[in-house]
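Can anyone check this?
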Amino acid sequence: MDPVAALDRIVYLLDRALEPSHRVNALPNAREAIAELDATEVEARAKAGTLTDLNHIGPVTAKVITEAVSGQVPSYLEKLEDETLIPMSDEGAAVRAALRGDCHTHSNWSDGGAPIEKMARTAIELGHEYMVLTDHSARLTVAHGLSRERLLEQLDVLDELDERLAPFRILRGIEVDIFEDGSLDCDEDLLSRLDVVVASVHSKLRMERQPMTERMVLAVANPYVDILGHCTGRKVVGKGRPESTFDPEIVFMACKQFDTAVEINCRPERLDPPRRLLKMAVEFGCRFSIDSDAHAPGQLDWQPHGCDRAAECEVPLESIVNTMPADDLLEWAGSHG
């Protein structure tokens, strides 16, 4: 097995498992150290036991490389394949099979961990026809959000990538912050140039019920907003974070009225909305988007989390916007504004 490919796959699986960054970060450095060497030298060092003399190669990565060049599937890789596999019910698998793309993804242009092209090529490997790139808007400085100038630059980069990756399509998008007054963190002339806009609350998550409801409804009603991202803002792992307080009946009624999709966020630490609210949104007849909210290639593989929840809560397939072909998705999103 190619040791570079083995290390790449291990990084993918660690990302899929949402492992802490310190566990993941050492692997790309080891990969680069090996990629720079001639295959003959790598094999010779593996046989001589001198791989750890190289910078960025420790005992674990040396064992992976040694097993790979000897023709074995590295034992660490085999272990991770089993441990990080995301189980899916038969019903969830049927939902996953219907998905044609992912409407909420990030790259290293904001707080993601990989270049746009690497995210796109991973999406292709997963069977997607398209990926909506939704890096953060400028206000989220902790996530290196996109200024006006950087967003315009990104759009030019996507034009070039589209030609190289065709027929796969990278759709232009943004995850735009919803301000406290319900306005959006992006100029309207820029929003009008984007294919799909995800609007999310990232600040003042503990607002009182009425102003939070008004804030979300104003965003949902905005003609440029297509998807309401992770609506409760909750975190369900680690120290956790409670749900934001708002009137879900009013918010979901607005989503239905303005044909804005409710995101089924697949991040394992979010799984947002919770089942009771997802069932409520189904009852209101809302549209949905099952999105990974991926910040690394392995996280694009998280959609099964949302697919199982969608099946369990009886979300109709025809209501899920990313079951649409790209052109139909664009037509639906374009009908808002």
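Reply from J.R.: I decoded it. The chain has 14 helices and seven strands.
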